[in-house]
Please model this.
Amino acid sequence: MTRLFGTNGIRGVVGEGMTPDLAVSIGRAVGTFFEGGPIALARDTRLSGPMLARAAASGLMSAGSDVIDLGIVPTPCAQFFVAKSGQAKGAIIVTASHNPREFNGLKTIDGRGMEMSREDEESIEAIYFDGRFQVAPWSDVGAIRTDETAIPRYTEAILSKVDADAIRKRAPMVVLDSGNGAGCVVTPYLLRSLGCRILTLNGQPDGAFPGRMPEPTPDHLGDLMRLVTEVHADVGIAHDGDADRATFVDDTGAFVVGDKSLALLAGAAVQGRGGTVVTPVSTSSLIDDVVRPSGGNVIRTRVGSPIVGRTMFESGAVFGGEENGGVIFPDHQFCRDGAMTAAKMLELLVRAGKPLSALLAALPQYHITKGKVDVPVEKRDAVLAGIVTIAKGRKVDTTDGVKILESDGSVLVRPSGTEPIFRVYAEAKTPARAEALLAEGTAMIRKALGTR
Ligand code: MG
Model:
């Protein structure tokens, strides 16, 4: 069957793949799937958001679902509303997350506030492709109302889950770059409630993204890094377009790679209590080094935040997340949460009483190198099977792609979900060993392809 949903909902360029017609149909399919509502509806700051959200609302109402319009809120804020308010059976969020400005997307959320399972997505795809839409008679079409409680509910929950008094006492100096995205409506106010001295960059919601691109990569965060240095801030925080991710800049103005911030947060989560931590196979072994001394254990999953969240839910994990700044705190909710991640990082900093740069320097150091090899989509499975054969006799993890584990490093070979390529991630304690493992992974793909 043709797929509608990618790894993170339905995405496309506005006016091409992403149209109001599609949004109406998805609204109809989601309304049919939930057999009536109410269904929450939210969006990020993208210019096409009102167009697509209104279309999705029409589709939902035509299937007999009432719609609760939350307006512009971060994705995790809408998820929290569904999970905790008891008012909605699910949600549609109009967002393209970190994608460039011409994109938009439709993300579907289940009754627990989690990104939908693949099974639920398949049910919606079946309704969509078969055209089996529920059509409400004139007397039963859905109604729509706005709700302004989502942000205060969400903000209060975060404040209750961190040591707000400790943060207020230290009043850290923070530069926040919300990137003109949905984080603008929550994080500055949250940080102020936490007593931070705060400077904002790109702090007004604006779907033209005049300040920077929505993905918080080092290339896009030059202004943030400079400002942190100039004002001698304790930390810089940046969100992606829908603020389910938080990326950090340390007190020296250096970009903090996601593997390191994830490891620091994981260490704080298991400290003194152990517990299960969930992360994809692609995350650095740094997380194992940090979690094991506290008696914790690490479960590795396939790549993608929905699978991480779901595995956490099923395993009773205390913490989880990905190396892209998407972090999940299960005491709060089972999805990535940028504002919560920011608050937890501040808590960690004030409790440690040390600069972020010092905490990072104290972590075990790894060298990571990445590469890619073109592999036609039709040869994907054969190449994967070939690599498993070539790697016979070695310690291998086949959770997602093939990861070969050595005593002094690892190499992961994984087909891309969106491009006809295999990605190779190598990691070791020295740059030379990381390069050697990268070369080995690349050679295995070529051998399995028969092109060596
Ligand atoms: Mg996002």
